[in-house]
């Protein structure tokens, strides 16, 4: 009896071993090179054990194979991934052969997570196309120009807040991400719903907490493919309630506002869209509109704090223009634009689509590399080595909104304060092992001094 059990167990064990071996042969039988995977972690043992961020595991593989092949194959546990190490191949995948590669690798259960499940990021095939086309019209120049006053109000509150905190003209140290998130949380809430989130007033801002709830829900769904519900009920009902209340309030009081919600309301009057569809769109804009841009702002300030000449050059450009920066002017300022692009190159908030080194002094912050005499970013974009917003038909659709939200904040801070990096900030911060976005393991602490 015992022997039968023994043989049965051994047989099962051997079958499992064969299956795993077969999975791990996926690339070798296709003659694609790559690091040798080891059960159970595949090639990402360090990140699986929390020793470093997944991006560094991938970067190690990239460095090992970039000279040897245009693509290489690796495994995260038992899941195979193809890593494109060549910019021509990247362009082929995300632009030219888009039709073959059009879906992202995110699983979410639309029935369990109706709100984050409706984001174009996750949707596939025709539903992706439809949902994307519904938000695209919110991002026209005319719409963004009418939202611009809300952004300006946000920068004013930002500057007022820093001024309030600086006592007796002393230098004051701030957690850069905390300050920039308060700002983006306010501006995105006001641009979508026309509501004042009061992130600079409250010590524990409520909208921010709900925003973090969204981010955590989404990050959990990216990190694991198990079909659990990801968004907590209180976060879900919070966004459902504020959206519905705002719609009802506007309809009852016949209020016409220029913001994202007004577009969605008029869209609903034209096509068949459910309430959940509208809330889903609002959640997409909220989620994508506050975390990414906050990271860019805080990294830009950090780099400007480290590079006094660049900060001074930017300040002079801003001083040479009207104090009331118009929408057009904000987008035109060339050095501000270069600082913005250089920050995105060095610190893409979404590190996964972009990890390409083809630059001279690639690790240094040099906005001058994008001088217009040298053709700006055009050459780099054509070669597909600068894609912080992705590229092709699936490119980030909030890019233009991100421009004004980020640039307006940097301009007003540099106009009003001298920024330096506090000595408590380590010289080369790394991405924390558990982070999904490029969030450093140490806080970036900056000193602000009134000018
Ligand atoms: C500097 C800030 C931002 C960066 C660096 C960024 C970057 C990205 C990237 C890399 C993608 C994926 C593109 C691809 O798959 O090729 C993406 C997609 C997307 N972004 Fe952004 N983003 C930013 C801000 C925003 C903002 C402010 C919004 C909206 C308010 C937004 C909305 C979206 C949406 C909806 C998608 C999904 C598009 C699709 O799959 O069709 N993003 N973004
Ligand atoms: C998307 O389309 C592809 C090919 O047309 C199909 O194989 C796949 O099952 C579709 N995915 C979903 C989620 O509909
Ligand atoms: C501007 O910000 C202040 C302070 O948060 C707020 O009370 C006011 O309603 C905002 N104005 C607009 C037009 O949003
Ligand atoms: C900023 O820091 C305060 C105090 O530590 C905290 O209560 C608040 O939630 C933080 N806000 C953001 C947006 O990080
Ligand atoms: C609107 O869509 C819902 C489901 O999404 C469907 O049940 C309903 O029949 C549609 N109505 C019209 C007029 O198309
Ligand atoms: C993330 O940010 C750090 C410092 O803030 C930077 O040095 C690093 O290059 C960035 N990494 C990626 C993959 O974006
Ligand atoms: C910065 O990037 C944007 C988008 O890629 C581009 O339109 C702009 O011209 C760039 N700026 C410079 C100075 O090249």
UniProtKB/TrEMBL annotation:
Instruction: Work out whether the entry's keyword set contains Membrane.
Output: yes
Q: Which UniProt keywords apply?
A: Endoplasmic reticulum, Heme, Iron, Membrane, Metal-binding, Microsome, Monooxygenase, Oxidoreductase, Transmembrane, Transmembrane helix
Domain of life, per lineage: Eukaryota
InterPro entries, alphabetically? Cyt_P450, Cyt_P450_CS, Cyt_P450_E_grp-I, Cyt_P450_sf, Insect_CytP450_Detox
Binding-site list for heme: 396
> What parts of the sequence cross the membrane?
6-24
In its UniProt record, a GO molecular function of this protein is: monooxygenase activity
Write down the Pfam families for this protein, in alphabetical order: p450 (PF00067)
Q: What does this protein do?
A: May be involved in the metabolism of insect hormones and in the breakdown of synthetic insecticides.
The protein's name in its UniProt record: CLUMA_CG008563, isoform A
Please name the source species.
Clunio marinus
């Amino acid at each position: 009896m015992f022997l039968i059990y023994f043989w049965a167990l051994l047989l099962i064990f051997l079958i499992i071993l064969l299956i795993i071996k077969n999975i791990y042969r996926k690339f070798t039988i296709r003659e694609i090179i790559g690091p040798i995977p080891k059960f159970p972690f595949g090639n990402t043992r360090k990140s699986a054990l929390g020793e470093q961020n997944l991006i560094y595991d991938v970067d190690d593989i990239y460095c090992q194979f970039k000279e040897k092949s245009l693509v290489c194959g690796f495994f995260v546990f038992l899941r195979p991934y193809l890593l494109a190490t060549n910019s021509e191949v990247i362009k082929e995948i995300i632009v030219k052969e888009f039709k073959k590669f059009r879906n992202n690798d995110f699983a979410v259960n639309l029935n369990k997570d109706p709100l984050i499940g409706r984001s174009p990021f996750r949707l596939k095939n025709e539903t992706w196309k439809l949902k994307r086309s519904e938000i695209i019209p919110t991002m026209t120049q005319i719409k963004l120009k009418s939202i611009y006053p809300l952004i300006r109000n946000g920068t004013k509150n930002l500057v007022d807040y820093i001024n309030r905190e600086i006592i007796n003209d002393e230098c004051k140290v701030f957690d850069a991400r905390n300050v920039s998130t308060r700002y983006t949380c306010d501006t995105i809430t006001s641009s979508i719903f026309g509501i004042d989130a009061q992130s600079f007033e409250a010590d524990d801002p409520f909208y921010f907490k709900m925003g973090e709830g969204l981010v955590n829900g989404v990050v959990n769904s990216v990190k694991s493919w198990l079909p659990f519900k990801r968004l907590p009920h209180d976060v879900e009902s919070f966004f459902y309630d504020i959206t519905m209340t705002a719609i009802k309030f506007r309809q009852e009081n016949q209020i016409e506002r220029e913001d994202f919600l007004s577009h969605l309301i008029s869209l609903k009057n034209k096509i068949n869209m459910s309430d959940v569809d509208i809330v889903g769109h609002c959640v997409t804009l909220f989620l994508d509109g506050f975390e990414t841009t906050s990271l860019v702002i805080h990294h830009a300030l950090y780099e400007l704090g480290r590079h006094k000449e660049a900060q001074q050059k930017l300040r002079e450009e801003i001083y040479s223009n009207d104090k009331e920066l118009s929408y057009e002017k904000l987008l035109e300022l060339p050095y501000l634009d270069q600082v913005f692009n250089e920050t995105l190159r060095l610190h893409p908030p979404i590190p996964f689509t972009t990890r390409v080194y083809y630059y001279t002094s690639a690790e240094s912050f040099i906005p001058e590399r994008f001088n217009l005499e040298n053709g700006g970013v055009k050459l780099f974009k054509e070669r597909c080595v600068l894609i912080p917003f992705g590229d092709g038909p699936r490119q980030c659709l909030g890019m233009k909104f991100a421009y004004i939200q980020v640039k307006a904040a940097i301009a007003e801070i540099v106009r009003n304060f001298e920024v330096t990096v506090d000595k408590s900030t380590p010289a080369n911060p790394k991405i924390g092992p558990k982070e999904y976005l490029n969030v450093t393991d140490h806080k970036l602490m900056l000193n602000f001094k009134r000018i």
